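WARN no homologs supplied; continuing
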Amino acid sequence: MAEEARIDKWLWAARIFKTRSIAADACKNGRVTIGGANAKPSRTVKANDVVAVRKPPVTYSFRVIKPIEQRVGAKLIPEIYENVTAPDQYELLEMNRISGFVDRARGTGRPTKKERRSLDAFIGPSFEGFDTWDEEEED
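OK structure emitted
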């Protein structure tokens, strides 16, 4: 077992990011810190390091238990890291989810395609006589 691992490989192997390139981009853009310092993709992590990953609006914190570079099954994740994210971060996530998109009540807002077709069918036939109306007005 290795005693340290590259942070981009560890983030991918621990299933925090879907691909290693996404993990490397997060490191390059300053969204990953180790012990409070920004981490480049090649930075190594050791056991007991605290890795903070900012995925707006939340900053997740993980304590490294085992530094690995090979991806493992999802059931083995508790052996890889411990989630030490503060509870207020999860409250922030919940508030963001609540304040975001809310299902609209039927009949409010923009009509659906079906509703629009019904409106067109209802309104359409009554306006077909525009040409005759203009001719009658000229007389």
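The CA atoms of residues 5 and 88 lie 30 Å apart.
OK
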